[in-house]
Amino acid sequence: MARAREFEPEEAVAAAMRLFRSKGYHDSSIRDLSDCTGVGPYGLYGVFGSKHGLFLAALDHYRKTVTAEVLQALEAPGPAREVIAEALARVLELMETPDGRVGCLMCNTATELAPQDPEAAAKVKAHLDLLAEAFQKLLLREAKPAKAGKAAPKKAPKKAPKKALKQDRGKVREEARDVAEFLAATVYGIGLLVRAGQDDAQIGRYIKTALKAVG
Amino acid sequence: MARAREFEPEEAVAAAMRLFRSKGYHDSSIRDLSDCTGVGPYGLYGVFGSKHGLFLAALDHYRKTVTAEVLQALEAPGPAREVIAEALARVLELMETPDGRVGCLMCNTATELAPQDPEAAAKVKAHLDLLAEAFQKLLLREAKPAKAGKAAPKKAPKKAPKKALKQDRGKVREEARDVAEFLAATVYGIGLLVRAGQDDAQIGRYIKTALKAVG
DNA sequence: TATATTCCATATCGAACGTTATGAAATGGA
DNA sequence: TCCATTTCATAACGTTCGATATGGAATATA
Q1: What is the count of structural domains for chain A?
Q2: What is the pTM of this model?
Q3: Among A36, A64, B41, B171, which residue's Cβ finds the most Cβ atoms within 10 Å?
Q4: How far is A95 from chain B (nearest CA, A)?
Q5: What CATH number should be reported for the domain holding residue A133?
Q6: Helix ranges, chain A (H)
Q7: For residue range A82-125, what is the model confidence (pLDDT) as tens digits?
């Protein structure tokens, strides 16, 4: 048929994501994006339709790469609190890249674009929910080891009326949701502090203090 | 001598601050600012020198108005934890304005500009420190009621060796600093969540959970 | 009232923006 | 080997950017 494409869209998105993450949406021009991806306006518009389309693709790429590493960290075995501490430490690591301390693209997007860009806002919200669900899953994994486990439960349920059980379950689930949402926001908070120029020691203390809310 | 100025710089800054807070720096044009302040490019450049100068003035104005209300809330009497809860609730109120849920200008600036704008970054950092100091002062006010107080101290110091006193003081002070820094970051976190489009109920749960870290 | 000076509204500047048009280069099927 | 088609690099489009120049209106002093 015709000439073949000479670039890989996925690679272009990855490069564009780096630029957007570093400089934000408005301060990244098509020429900048063209330079950093090595693609040229024709290619970018042909595949992504617009600067905005490319940006949305970059948001998806962020979730599939950076955020995926956080979610993976939350799948680690062990006590929830320790897993969370490790995951948040990993988050902090991920906020620094060869481009500098660029923070979290989703957090940056929330403040720069969300109120005026429904599509970007939807992706940010979905991302927050994704994080919260991962935290909640981890928290509930520990809260109810009711299923057959190898080790015996440390805290044996004493004097637990059957009627109250459902209420307890609800309470536990509710608190887990609150803490999970809080931790998802904390992930954004880490990105925010990195972006604000705080050093790792200070952010480490922030994480340590936030963990006190896990209970 | 000559013709008098027809606008009040302070009012112009206030209007510019509202626009910057709503749309960010890069998405607010001189024409927009000219329209919303009613001043015209000549006046703006004559007084503020540049768009960037006007923005820095807007950051100062934010501290002197919005943040001042938060600092005032932190001066309220009563148990630290309750005062903090009230102050954070006040923060949430302040994030909504006639222009919508615009969030915190300092938080927005941290993510949009700080890495590439040293002057803005310095103001953001100073603002964070200001908040942290206010929280720390409040926390320490409660931690050491050593000075002559009307009511008797509830927790009488039992078996406290003189040598350990200094160390305890240091520990208390250190923990107060950590919590204070955490709470300052929480203020930004509230602004971030507002900007991300979370509703008040969700942010209220975030505040409630964060308060668990106060201890 | 005359004048020098400053401010205002507006026009305008060169540059950069996001996007599209253009012509040469490349490629699979006839 | 030619052709139809698609991609490429690049020029160009109209618009808007931040910033400045300009001419008339306003004012304190003389």
Answers
A1: 1
A2: 0.92
A3: A36
A4: 13
A5: 1.10.357
A6: 9-23, 30-37, 41-48, 51-62, 68-73, 80-95, 105-112, 118-143, 162-196, 200-211
A7: 999 999 999 999 999 999 999 999 999 999 999 999 999 999 99
